[in-house]
Amino acid sequence: MLEEIIIQNPWWKTKHVSESKLGNIRRSEFDPLKDELEDKKISCLLGPRRSGKTTLMYELIGHLIRNGVSERNILFISFDNPKIRLNLQHNFDEAIRDFSNTMIREPIDKLSANSYIFLDEIHKLDDWGNIIKYWQDLGLKIKFIVSGSSSLRILKGGGESLLGRINFHLILPLKFSEFTGRVASADFENFSGIKRAHDELLLEKHDLIIKLDEYILKGGFPEVFGIQDIEKAYEVLKQYKTLTINRDILDLKDIKEPRILSDLADLLSDHMSQRISYSAFADILNIKVDTVKNYISYLEECFLIYTAYLYSKKQVISTRKEKKLYFIDCGLRNSLLLKEIDDLEKTKIIENIVFFHILSLKKRELFPRIFYWLDRMRNEVDIVITLKNEVIPIEVKYSDNIGKKDIKGLINFCEEFKTRGLVITKDLLRDDGDIIFIPAWLFLIMI
Predict the structure, then answer these.
(1) What CATH number is given to the structural domain containing 50?
(2) Same structural domain for residues 16 and 52?
């Protein structure tokens, strides 16, 4: 057991974190996590597999060592390792005390300096919240940093027992600004600021549009960032789906026909950015509607997909009405799609990308709700978000030839709710008073 843990903590020998474990892209979440290292609250990294959670942990470990923390005061454990998981399920407390006595060479209750314990994929450890709460209640010089790729398991394990003692960070695939290394500082409701940001980027505009085309195809998972061959990138992304289903669903749920779950994920890829019918999927797969609902909830718990609700001031209406489907990453979705990506598909993908970026604005919330809207004539608004008690409707039209009939739902929403709206375009920048038109390449690096 000790040998397994030593393998996971090579810095005990080398006194540094290997470059191979560190990312080559600066993530926006690193600085907030770094600032929390001296905070007694638990830091929890939530998000899909391979989105960069473990890499961020290694980067935090490297930061600690570079800033004078002894490598022996840092423990990393991955619960993806079945041998470690099974052993620590019943011997976690003993392992922590052994770490303190053997590596730090001080009793755990008499530590002279802070120790940092990183627990990767902690949702695999049953009742993890109460286990960590026990150590938190002792008031020792220990900082816990944990991660998980199953939202429900994380919240069931630690939601109530650690209430007020944990900070959640949603770690998503790379945003377009991280993908390009370019950020535009502008409020997307202030046209003069948007225009200024646009003009400052005129010389880079062509390159950003080319980068957006690449992003539309590959998405933002860090591992495919440097893969130029799209087919190779898709093979990697397909493995993510398989890995997530096998490790985060089948390991934790009683599913009698796992193949149907995999088939449903593939089937959903052709319904991205659309309202979904549970009964239609049930008919196709020859299963019960409740089974479809359960399987979709499992895929959502593991961050493969996300559903948007109908915007309504009545909670019961919002909950009962049909949901709209999005994938957490467009590249992952594209890898499952068995058809060419034409202009119509590009529009759906851009909407999915915009949704994902809007989601990143609310990533400090545990279960942020994002909406769509239908008027009485079923004219739709693609995305509706509430920020700072303000309602913002967003329509995605990846074109520059946009008439009033194309955004009828948005116009009606703005009139009914007395607000301003946004249209995300291909390259059209314009202020129409209640509606601002913003090119997708610009909007995405503003978030």
Answers:
(1) 3.40.50.300
(2) yes
To the question of pTM greater than 0.90 for the whole model, the response is: yes
Contact assessment for residue 360 and residue 387, using Cβ atoms and an 8 Å cutoff: no
pLDDT digits (tens, 9 = 90+) for 77-134: 999 888 999 999 889 999 999 999 999 999 999 999 999 999 999 988 888 888 999 9
Please say which residue of 134, 151, 170 terminates a domain: 170
Q: Which two tokens stand for residue 309?
A: 């609700």
Q: Which two tokens stand for residue 261?
A: 């779950």
Strands, E assignment, 139-191 = 142-148, 166-170
In which domain, by residue range, is 102 found? 2-170
DSSP H or E segment with residue 308: strand 305-310
- Per-residue tokens: 149: 């790729």
**Can you tell me the distance from the alpha carbon of 396 to that of 209, in angstroms, rounded to the nearest whole number?**
16
In sign, the C-alpha dihedral spanning 32, 35, 37, 38 is negative
Instruction: Tell me the pLDDT tens digit for each residue of 188-231.
Output: 889 999 999 999 999 999 999 999 999 999 999 999 999 999 99
* Beta bridge pairs of residue 310: 372
> What string of DSSP letters covers 337-384?
--S---HHHHHHHHHHHHHHHHHHTTTTSSS---EEEE-TT--EEEEE
Q: Which of 113, 145, 170 is the last residue of a domain?
A: 170
* pLDDT single digits (tens) 33-69: 999 999 989 999 999 999 999 999 999 999 999 999 9
- In three-state secondary structure terms, 307 is strand
- Shortest CA distance to 27 belongs to which of 48, 55, 65? 55
Question: Residue-wise over 288-317: b if at least 16 C-beta within 10 A, else e?
Answer: eeebbeebbebbbbbbbbbbbbbbeeeeee
Looking at the structure, do residues 60 and 129 belong to the same domain, yes or no?
yes
Nearest alpha carbon to residue 176 among 199, 147, 201, 146: 201
Alpha-carbon distances of 383 from 55, 307, 346, 417, rounded to whole Å: 31, 11, 17, 15
C-alpha to C-alpha distance for 238 and 269, rounded to whole angstroms: 12
Nearest to 404 by CA among 441, 432, 429: 432
Q: In angstroms, rounded to a whole number, what is the distance separating the alpha carbons of residues 411 and 379?
A: 10
pLDDT at residue 358, rounded to an integer = 95
- Between 105-114, 246-255, 268-277, 292-301, the lowest mean confidence (pLDDT) is in 246-255
Please check whether residues 324 and 363 belong to one and the same domain. Answer: yes
pLDDT: which is higher, 388 or 294? 294
Average pLDDT for 143-172: 81
